[in-house]
Design brief:
Elements: E1 22-29, H1 34-43, E2 49-56, H2 58-65, E3 70-73, E4 86-90, H3 94-107, E5 110-113
Parallel strand pairs: 1-2, 1-4, 2-3, 4-5
Length: 127
Amino acid sequence: MTDFSRSKTYLPVKIDLSGSNVLVLCSVIQAGSRILKTIRQLIECTDHLTVVCLSADASAEMLAAQGIIDLRIKEYDRNDLFGSDLVICSHEDQAVLDDVHAACKTLGIRLSILSEPWRSDYILDSE
């Protein structure tokens, strides 16, 4: 019988994202932030990285200008999710987090909410 009272142990897994469409949804991208570290980590894993955010600093804009990421400075819209294989979300608006979670579950898109690992399909170790 399994003891469900103990805390979870996670299995470290490596995933090939080379052909995957990866979407990062966030509020703000700033130098030194966890989300920028995550974006830099993802750049090494996929050629299809889209970032949707409300504002971005010069480092993110430079990545976009070089064609490394597709940067969209705008409000989140559920249509942003379509075509994504994997979504990483770090947003300050709880309503956005709830909508992204519900939509990804419905559409079968793998999701990591950085601030809510208990609602995520995986935990991204980017720190």
